[in-house]
């Protein structure tokens, strides 16, 4: 029942990670404080059963640095790294005896002169209770060193003044390779903890570098991290689950009012939860410890004795014997790790999805635990603080832009909403068969909402439960009431790559809603779609049947192609709406849907949008509950459709074409005179700016882009949005494809080749392994690599052969790598034998398939795309090929 803390100067951690892992598992270490890791910002250390954090030197080169390794079952919170040239510290906070204590792995390079202010600044950063472990490079006879040095004298004065405590081992921790240097103690603990915590220090001989580790034992343990709550914690007895629910459900439950519906849902949810927990048999957690073979343990023991002999005698012959044993142990541990990995690769198959689990572990970017800044500039020290900061940020986000809304417009909308509704026919009821069908086809392995109900649980509901759920759904439609319990969401925050991690704005919210609320939304969606289809503009392609991003980009490509063939200048603007889905004004949305929704659907959506609340989850902590005052519900099924309705009446002009995909908006205007083309575009931008202001949405002038598509050297004049100049760019990325000035597709293909190279490096071990059969390797290529470059090939597949060859070269190289084909096997033979088409053939196949599906499309804008020539049929002037040339053999 003791907390075991290992402190060690690794002098380059990557070289010793196998030995370190063996020691951590053999000694059952809880926390390891490592100094001199030689890590950089891109370094990643993964050890099974442990969480690893590191701080590198401020110059981001492979020297100095510190790391802290914590058993993953312990509850802790990583703190902001202390990173200066003279002190590098990696820090966590954990609780011992109900007291929060800061634990820090520290390294102080010897070449810097550290002042008392710098030491005091570091100690103040740690707080009132802390344990520091690492290589301070401070010598003083007070903690067992042979001599004092200036840094040791300074540190001793500070420790005496502040009443800190030094804990040092009984024997040296630094063993120099030169016989002229004397072994001494450089690694120590500095503590400021309660006297009730008894500490004991032990020297260790494993793992080894030019420093030896030592162990601090504290007679307490931090709290164990609670497991994520789940209804299926182990083996499930589904028959018992169904019988238990059948006994608890009463089909004669009263459903005459909104409170009756809330009570029925609460009772229904509780019945499912208690039945699931009573029907599950917990499975003991799997041990991550690696049992070392007897010969390895024997080799470790011999090496340990040899090191002790060399430390005692300092003979060169003993040092050589010790070095030989060290290298032998490293090779043996590396071979064991390699054999284990090869056995894992040999067991990979598609039958049990193990191949996808392996690739997911490789490709998944590890979600680091980031520390946020408080409004006063200090750093968060717990999950509670972090969750509260994120809640406040989201609470301010889920509000309308009141500063944009006109009081006159608000009064007009409110008057409209107060007007009486017309009479209507009663709605069609939901049948149990519809409910069962939606549950059956719902996606599995989705994170549950606060009620923990998942698709796996819902699929096993008995018929009586499905009938009761159908009663609830029909009563919701009859009373036009959406239950309060289904309007509460738990939000988890995902860091946006490349954004500053300390800012709340750098996190993307992911909303987790109750499962049965999303099933009801899918059932309502069937009734909404026929009504909405008639009222959405043809230019809106998102969340519509048989509409895709490729269709929308094709319209833009056709317009640009026409202008290039006709020697016109095409100016384009690509708008970014700031927090578009989160800022939708509820009253304005209700005003718009009231115009064409049946009364029962209007009232149901009104109830659906009102009184929504959320809570932010950070680690295992939930923040306080906050209200959502604006926006379409993030993560909801019908949210994109509601947003499309809200933006359906945006102004258009005859001289511009519009392409919408949800909140991604593009505008194009063409003319032989660039000034006239710019005037067309500026007129449309002014109309849009006015519309967005009226309806409480804000355009982001800094992220919106202006570009010119032409073969001429001249650009269009500067465009303005809300009197602010729009940033200009030669290349623009829209819906995943990069459009360049001359529409050569070269920038897009270059970026895809870089992405493919990075992905191939990640999958290299799988693609080149001799333990995975050829069919599985080809499957990995087709599922994880090929889709990266295939996207949009219907359009960029007509690029010049020199550009297409970039992707073809990559495919040939990858197939040769997979098959290990010798040099004399031609690329044509490789493709033929593996039944892999060439890139140029893939482009033709995809475009022909794409073009054939355009026939008889209900959207009139698709008629131009389905033509055999560029819309407008301009005379062929350029030698280049366009995408429709792919139809020719």
From TrEMBL:
Residue limits of the Reverse transcriptase domain?
A: 475-739
Return the InterPro entries for the record.
Answer: DNA/RNA_pol_sf, Endo/exonu/phosph_ase_sf, Endo/exonuclease/phosphatase, RdDP_mobile_element, RT_dom
Q: Which UniProt keywords apply?
A: Nucleotidyltransferase, RNA-directed DNA polymerase, Transferase
- Pfam families given for it? Exo_endo_phos_2, RVT_1
* Source taxon at top rank: Eukaryota
Among its keywords, does the record have Nucleotidyltransferase?
A: yes
Q: Which GO molecular function annotation, any one, does this entry have?
A: RNA-directed DNA polymerase activity
PANTHER family, per the entry: ENDO/EXONUCLEASE/PHOSPHATASE DOMAIN-CONTAINING PROTEIN, ENDONUCLEASE_EXONUCLEASE_PHOSPHATASE DOMAIN-CONTAINING PROTEIN
- What this protein is called in its record is Putative RNA-directed DNA polymerase
The protein's organism comes out as Sipha flava (yellow sugarcane aphid)
């Amino acid at each position: 029942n003791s907390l075991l803390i290992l402190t060690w100067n690794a002098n380059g951690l990557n070289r010793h990670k196998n030995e370190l892992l063996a020691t951590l598992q053999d000694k059952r270490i809880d926390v390891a404080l490592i100094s001199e890791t030689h890590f950089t910002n891109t370094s990643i250390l993964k050890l099974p059963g442990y969480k690893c954090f590191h701080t590198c030197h401020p110059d981001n080169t492979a020297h100095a640095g510190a790391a802290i390794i914590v058993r993953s079952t312990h509850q802790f919170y990583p703190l902001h790294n202390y990173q200066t040239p003279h002190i590098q510290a990696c820090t966590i906070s954990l609780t011992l005896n109900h007291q929060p204590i800061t634990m820090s792995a520290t390294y102080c390079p010897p070449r810097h002169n550290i002042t008392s202010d710098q030491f005091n600044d570091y100690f103040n950063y740690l707080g009132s209770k802390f344990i520091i472990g690492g290589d301070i490079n401070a010598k003083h006879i007070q903690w067992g060193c042979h001599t004092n040095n200036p840094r040791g004298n300074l540190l001793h004065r500070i420790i005496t003044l502040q009443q800190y405590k030094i804990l040092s081992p009984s024997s040296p921790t630094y063993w120099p390779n030169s016989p002229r240097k004397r072994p001494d103690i450089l690694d120590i603990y500095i503590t400021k903890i309660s006297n009730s915590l008894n500490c004991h220090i032990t020297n260790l001989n494993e793992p080894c570098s030019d420093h030896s580790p030592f162990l601090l034992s504290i007679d307490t343990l931090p709290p164990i991290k609670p497991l994520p709550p789940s209804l299926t914690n182990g083996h499930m007895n589904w028959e018992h689950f169904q019988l238990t629910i059948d006994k608890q459900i009463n089909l004669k439950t009263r459903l005459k009012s909104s409170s009756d519906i809330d009570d029925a849902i609460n009772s229904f949810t509780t019945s499912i939860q208690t039945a699931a927990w009573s029907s599950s048999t917990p499975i003991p957690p799997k041990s991550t410890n690696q049992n070392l073979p007897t010969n390895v343990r024997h080799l470790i023991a011999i090496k340990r004795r040899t090191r002790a002999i060399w430390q005692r005698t300092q003979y060169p012959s003993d040092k050589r014997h010790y070095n030989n044993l060290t290298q032998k142990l490293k090779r043996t541990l590396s071979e064991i790790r390699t054999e284990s990995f090869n056995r894992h690769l040999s067991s990979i198959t598609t039958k049990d999805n193990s191949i996808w689990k392996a690739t997911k572990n490789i490709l998944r970017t590890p979600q680091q635990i980031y520390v946020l800044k408080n409004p006063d500039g200090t750093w968060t020290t717990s999950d509670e603080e972090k969750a509260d900061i994120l809640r406040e940020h989201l609470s301010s986000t889920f509000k309308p832009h009141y500063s944009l809304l006109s009081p006159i417009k608000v009064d007009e909308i409110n008057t409209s909403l107060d007007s009486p509704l017309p009479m209507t026919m009663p709605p069609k009821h939901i049948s149990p068969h519809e409910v069962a069908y939606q549950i059956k086809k719902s996606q599995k392995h989705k994170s549950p909402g606060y009620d923990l109900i998942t698709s796996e649980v819902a699929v096993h509901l008995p018929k009586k439960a499905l009938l009761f759920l159908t009663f609830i759904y029909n009563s919701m439609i009859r009373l036009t009431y959406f239950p309060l319990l289904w309007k509460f969401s738990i939000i988890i925050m995902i860091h946006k790559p490349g954004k500053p991690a300390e800012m709340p704005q750098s996190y993307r919210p992911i909303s987790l809603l109750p499962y049965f609320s999303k099933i009801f939304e899918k059932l309502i969606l069937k009734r909404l779609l026929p009504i909405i289809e008639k009222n959405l503009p043809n230019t809106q392609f998102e969340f519509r049947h048989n509409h895709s991003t490729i269709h929308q980009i094709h319209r833009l490509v056709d317009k640009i192609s026409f202008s290039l063939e006709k020697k016109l200048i095409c100016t384009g603007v690509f708008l970014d709406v700031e927090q578009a889905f989160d800022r939708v004004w509820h009253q304005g949305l209700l005003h718009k849907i009231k115009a064409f929704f049946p009364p029962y659907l209007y009232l149901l959506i009104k109830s659906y949008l009102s009184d929504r609340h959320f809570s932010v989850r950070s680690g295992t902590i939930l923040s306080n509950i906050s209200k959502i005052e604006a926006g379409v519900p993030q993560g909801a099924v019908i949210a994109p459709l509601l947003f499309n309705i809200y933006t359906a009446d945006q102004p258009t002009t005859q001289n511009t074409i519009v392409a919408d995909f949800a909140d991604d908006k593009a505008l194009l205007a063409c003319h032989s005179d660039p000034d006239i083309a710019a005037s067309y575009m500026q007129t449309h931008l002014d109309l849009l700016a006015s519309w967005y202001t009226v309806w409480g949405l804000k355009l982001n002038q800094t992220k919106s882009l202006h570009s010119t598509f032409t073969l001429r050297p001249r650009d269009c004049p500067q465009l303005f949005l809300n009197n602010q100049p729009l940033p200009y760019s030669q290349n623009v990325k829209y819906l995943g494809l990069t459009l360049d000035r001359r529409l050569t597709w070269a920038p897009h293909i270059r970026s895809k080749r870089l992405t493919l190279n990075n992905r191939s490096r990640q999958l290299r071990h799988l693609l080149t392994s001799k333990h995975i059969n050829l069919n599985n390797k080809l499957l990995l290529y087709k599922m994880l690599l090929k889709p990266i470059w295939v996207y949009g090939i219907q359009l960029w597949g007509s690029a010049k052969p020199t550009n297409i060859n970039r992707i073809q070269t990559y495919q040939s190289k990858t197939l040769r790598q997979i098959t290990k084909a010798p040099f004399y096997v031609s690329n044509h033979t490789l493709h033929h034998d593996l039944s892999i088409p060439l890139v140029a053939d893939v482009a033709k196949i995809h475009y022909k398939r794409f073009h054939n599906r355009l026939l008889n499309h209900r959207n009139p804008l698709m008629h131009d795309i389905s033509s055999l020539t560029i819309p407008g049929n301009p005379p062929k002037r350029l030698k280049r090929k366009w995408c429709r040339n792919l139809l020719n053999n």
